[in-house]
Every structure is written in C-alpha cells, then in structure tokens.
Amino acid sequence: MSRARSRTRRGPRKDRLIQTRVAQELEKALKSEADRRRLSVSHLIRNVLEDTFDLVDTVVRDVDNIVADSVELADQVRRDAENIAFGSRERVRKAAAERDAGDEGDEESDEEPGETDAPEPAAEGSDPTADIDAWNAVTVNRPADCARCDKTLARGDSAHLGISATAGGPKVWLCQNCLDTLE
C-alpha cells in the first residue's frame, strides 16, 4: 500500500511541515534541550514558537496600558507642578506686597486697615465648598478636618482636596462620604 493511499484512509494531516536550516551549534542546543525535556525536537521548536508569540502578544497588548498610565501620570505631575508654581508665585507676591507695605508705613493707602486681597472667611453656616471648582483625590499627609462633617482625616487616609481659582484661600478637605453626598 502506498503512502498516499494510507493517508486517505487515516484522513489528511492537519499539521504542516516547515523546514529551515540552522547552525550546527543551534542544532546541538535544540537536541540537548529536547532530550532534557523528554520531547522531540519538533515539539520543542513548536512549543518555543507558540510561547514566543504568546509573550509578544502580551507585551504588545500591555504596552498600550503602560503608555496610557504613563501619559496619565505625566499629566497629573504637570498639573501638580503648575499648582505648586502658582501657589509659590502667590506667596512671593504677597510677601513682597507685605514688605512693600511695611516700608511705606506712613504713606496713605487706598485700602482700609486690615483689608487684603485674601478672600473673606466663610460666614458661619455657609457652605465651605461653594467656591470649589473641582476635587482632587489625594492621600492625606498631615491631619486635617472634613469641611462638612468635621471628621478628622489622619495621615494615610484617602480624602479630596478642593481646587479653587481663588488664590490664597483656605484649604478645603472632604472625606469620601461627604464627597458622595455632593449634588
């Protein structure tokens, strides 16, 4: 019976044969590794190729996540740096204005005594969150109190720090429960 005939009785082969030439050193390494793993050389090569493609697919798929996370982190660092720079400029400006006001001393001023550019403190019973434009999720480093419920926020707690366009205003903190109740 010929080979072609015997294949038709068993059905056609589903696997395909790929041949390639390799250096003698690589052939020895493949045969040695196949013996060590108790596999045929073709099974070892098939396994290595499949594992390599799986690994490459995983790396390519995860690169998108890594890049997205990196971009998000870079944006957050940029925003934080801008906020720090803005706050520093405001503190320097205020210090310079106070120093200049102290130097002028006797000269008349348009401002009433005690009048400054700083916002007025919130009146008793008013909403301390009224001037907040956004909330930034943070981990507390120094103890603070929630502006709504007066809960003490300890170091390491998750909280939300209010961001306002008003420079030099008081820091406004919210615990997660109070943030969830905002309308």
Give a structural overview.
With 183 residues, the chain is mainly alpha-helical. The chain has two domains: 21-103; 134-180, no CATH class. It has helices at residues 3-10, 24-37, 41-104, 176-180; strands at residues 134-139, 144-145, 152-153, 158-163, 173-174. Helix 2 (24-37) packs across helix 3. It is elongated. 6% of the residues are buried.
Topology:
Elements: H1 3-10, H2 24-37, H3 41-104, E1 134-139, E2 144-145, E3 152-153, E4 158-163, E5 173-174, H4 176-180
Antiparallel strand pairs: 1-4, 2-3, 4-5
Helix pairs in contact: 2-3
Write down the overall mean pLDDT: 79
| Beta strand count | 5
Strand content: 5-15%
Largest sheet: 3 strands, antiparallel
Backbone structural class: mainly alpha
The H/E string reads HHHEEEEEH
N-to-C CA distance: 84 Å
Low-confidence spans? 111-123
The helix content, as a percent range, equals 40-55%
Rounded to the nearest angstrom, the radius of gyration is 35 Å
- Structure annotation, total helices: 4
State the domain count. Answer: 2
Strand order of the largest sheet: 1-4-5
Name the overall outline. Answer: elongated
